[in-house]
Design brief:
This protein is mainly α. The protein has eleven helices and no strands. Pfam families: TetR_N (PF00440). Keywords: DNA-binding, Transcription, Transcription regulation. This is TetR/AcrR family transcriptional regulator.
Length: 193
């Protein structure tokens, strides 16, 4: 874990993480050096080293920061949905919305960088587990047709992994955000009682 994750983040550090997320989402990160990043954020390299001990750890910390914030926003959207069908649709569409600001370069850099890819993969597994829980709840409430929730969740997880690994983008031309919206529509039509 990076030092930024291990200890309490100051307000200034949180602001820098937010700025880093914006920079990385817009432009990617693989091509940027720490000197480039410091110049873009108008801070010193020592300020960046206070966030993480090297660029790889900084990329990891920023990716964690991005997904942590995205998860909080997705769960907030989900909390406003009531029916099982709406909850699944809301969840997957909210995941898609969180990925909308991500440039293709950012997504390619995530896929090509082990530290960032690991964070995305972990979040994809957690999201697939969340979908399984939502399906189980909907079937138990009689709001969704009887399905084998583990199988459906496994299919969803497989698609989510393909989205995360950029395979869906290459095969269909869909951006990750749009792929999640299409997955939401497909799943909702297939699960409706």
């Amino acid at each position: 874990m990076t030092r930024a994750v291990n200890r309490r983040t100051t307000a200034r550090q949180a602001q820098l993480f937010d700025q880093l997320v914006t920079l990385f989402l817009d432009e990617g990160f693989a091509h940027l050096t720490l000197d480039d990043i410091a110049a873009r954020l108008r801070c010193s390299k020592s300020t960046l080293y206070a966030l993480a001990e090297n660029k790889d750890r900084l990329v990891h910390a920023v990716t964690v920061h991005f997904f942590r914030g995205a998860t909080e926003r997705v769960e907030a959207d989900l909390a406003r949905s009531r029916s099982s069908e709406a909850r699944i649709r809301t969840y997957l569409e909210a995941v898609g919305r969180q990925l909308e600001p991500a440039s293709a370069r950012f997504m390619e850099d995530i896929a090509g960088t082990a530290a960032a890819r690991e964070v995305y993969e972990r979040n994809t597994r957690l999201a697939a587990d969340r979908v399984r829980t939502l399906i189980d709840e909907g079937v138990a409430a009689g709001e969704l047709r009887e399905v084998h929730a583990a199988f459906v969740a496994d299919v969803v997880a497989a698609i989510m992994v393909r989205i995360q690994q950029r395979q869906v983008a290459r095969a269909t031309g869909l951006a990750d955000a749009q792929a999640y919206r299409e997955l939401a529509a497909l799943l909702n039509h297939g699960l409706t009682a």
